[in-house]
Amino acid sequence: MTATHRLDGTSAASDPHDVPPDKDSPATTLRTGRRAPGRARRAEARAGIAMAAPAVLLLLGFLIVPVLLGFGLAFTNARLISPEPTRFVGWDNFVRAFTIDPSFFHSAINTFVFAAVVVPVQAGFGLFLAVLVNQKIRGVTAFRVIFFIPVVTSIVVVSILWKFMYQGNGLVNSFINSITFGAWQGTAWLNNPSTALGAIIVLSIWQAVGFHMLIWLSGLQTIPGELYEAARMDGAGAWQQFRNVTWPCLRPTRVFVLITITIAALGLFVQIDVMTQGGPVDSTTTLVYHAVQMGYRQQQIGYGSALSLIFFVIVLIIALVQRFLTRDKD
Amino acid sequence: MARSHDVPHAERQLRRRRRVWSYLVLTGLAVFFLFPLVFMFVSSLKPDGQILSDTRSWRAFLPAGHISLDNYKGVFARVPVGRFLFNSILVTVLIVGLGLVVNSMAGFALSRLRWKGRSLVLSLVIATLIVPFETIAVPMVYWVAHLPTLLFQDGSLVYDIGWLDSYKVQIIPFVANGFSVFLFAQYFSTIPTSLDEAARIDGAGWFTIYRRIIVPLSGPAFATVAILTFLPAWNQYLWPSMVVQDEKLRPVMVGMQYFFQDTTAWGEVMAYASMITIPVLVVFLAFQRAFVSSVAASGVKG
Questions:
Q1: How many other CB atoms are there within 10 angstroms of residue B254's CB atom?
Q2: Lowest mean pLDDT among A125-139, A236-250, B54-68
Q3: What pLDDT digit, counting tens, does each position of B123-149 carry?
Q4: Residues of the domain holding A248
Q5: Which chain B residues are closer than 8 Å to A154 by Cβ?
Q6: Residue A244, domain member (yes or no)
């Protein structure tokens, strides 16, 4: 092992393209002669393949294969455990989703409503926080840490905690009650079809916004201070500085934040599973929750795969559209 | 900040007023982000009746009244939460640890070595970034349920089908990570290649170059990847809730949901929640600087 590598090392150095031929080279170099570069390159290729192999095989086995398998299973009636053999059923699963499964329709609507609210609100709130904690004032790091704490708290814990706070006699209602001096009694937020999704939106933003605050912050910190000084010299106020300096400079960050929040929001699952199980009356079911419900809990792997595939195509289309809309126009 | 004496009085006052406003808003937001967690910790110390009666006042946030660790004892009496913690720690450590090795080697091969198929592999790795785990969860259950496995049973090796209910099904699918490979490759490509050439003249093989030169120079990349893979591994929920039924192999998050489903004892639920939150908070507060720069690094790719 070592011997070959030593040869390669020496011979690479004597590669005629890199180094002028040396008349006094050691015997090894003379012996390997002109074939040395090829051998060095082969050793490099072997090393490259060997070192990439573990990750590549794992990605193939646990990402690429499941994706392809999902494509295949979507057109079958496969079940997790079944006495009957799996059969090819054509587009049946997709027809079922779009025509006879009302829960699928509800799950799609809820997912889009969730994303349509969460994406702009979380992105905007995150930027607001980033601007606040980007000020050069004492103790600002402590605030950054505090705003990030919900992000490191598990979403399962967060969901259970907020479920408790959203109860009829819970903390949220008693808070609303006290700031309105008892004028409004509140509601059992998660049991009411018209408030359940909204309640989940609030806690989802509460949990995740700190992450995007930091992404925005790293974007803000790449903006050179001279730009602000120049803007101030021209008499720009705080808002004008934001509009004409900060916002244009945050372009690349904006694209990243937009796409990551969108994909995360479309994948809404844990909050639903822990807090509402899709209810009341389908008012909080989502595409992923429905796919897991069908594919795993009811063991209809084929139908669940079809729902997952529909979800994947939707995510892909939205991500591509966002890429296209935010592309570099020049 | 110290140059204030040449600033006109009015402007100085404006600045001070703005600073006061900033602190007011920041403090308000800090309360907004902290109150649920304070409520959780405080409630975990109170009997159920008092938790409910305290929600009507500020006492909800104060460790007042009857304070004890009874809820924690109750959790331990009811479920093997120590075992759940052990499972989660084992799974997390192995995902992060094996991931650092496997993904950094791939990052090295992709960023510094020339080999046939490299660009194909690179595009494959990048393609994996656009696949959310949720889209493959269902077919993946089917897949792992049909994978072959070798078991030790009564001193002999037994061939079996199915990875369900095991540690490996919780670990191995998450070791390789396209984003980690990408971050490593990106970081490694900033290290001058003259170092490799010098080492090769000295007779070092490629693996030696990786281990002795590249790895020691890439501390920040390893810290970033470790932090970014630690959180999702610890917080795993969807996957283990599908593939692990055996209580002995259950991780903390799934254990929490089961625990929550069959109890109305909110004090104990809060105690369980606190127990699985505190370790992560401690790690976070100890390494907050590294956390912050890791998240920032994850956004650089734009």
A1: 24
A2: B54-68
A3: 999 889 888 898 999 999 999 998 888
A4: 102-325
A5: 234-235, 237, 253, 256, 276-277, 280
A6: yes
Q: Rounded to the nearest 5 degrees, what angle is found at the Cα of A201, between the Cα atoms of A200 and A206?
A: 100
Which token pair is B67?
């304070």
Is A129 in the same domain as A237?
A: yes
- Residue B162's alpha-carbon distances to A314, B150, B165, B215, B243, in angstroms, are 31, 10, 9, 36, 10
Q: Does the distance separating the beta carbons of A160 and B141 come in below 8 Å?
A: no
CATH of the domain at A280: 1.10.3720.10
Is the CB of residue B53 less than 8 Å away from at least one CB of chain A?
no
Same domain (yes/no): A131, A253: yes
Residues A52 and A125 in one domain: no
pLDDT of residue A183: 74
Same domain, A144 and A282: yes
Mutate: best of B19, B134, B193, B252, partner A, most A CBs <10 A? B134
pLDDT tens digits for range B89-119 = 999 999 999 999 999 999 999 999 999 889 9
In a domain, A16, yes or no: yes
From A115's Cα to the closest Cα of chain B, the distance in A is 15
Distance (Å) from the C-alpha of residue B91 to the closest C-alpha of chain A?
16
Q: In this complex, do B121 and A52 lie within 8 Å of one another by their Cβ atoms? A: yes
Q: How confident is the prediction for chain B on average, in pLDDT?
A: 88
Range B197-209 burial, b when 16+ CB lie within 10 A, else e: eebbeeebbbebb
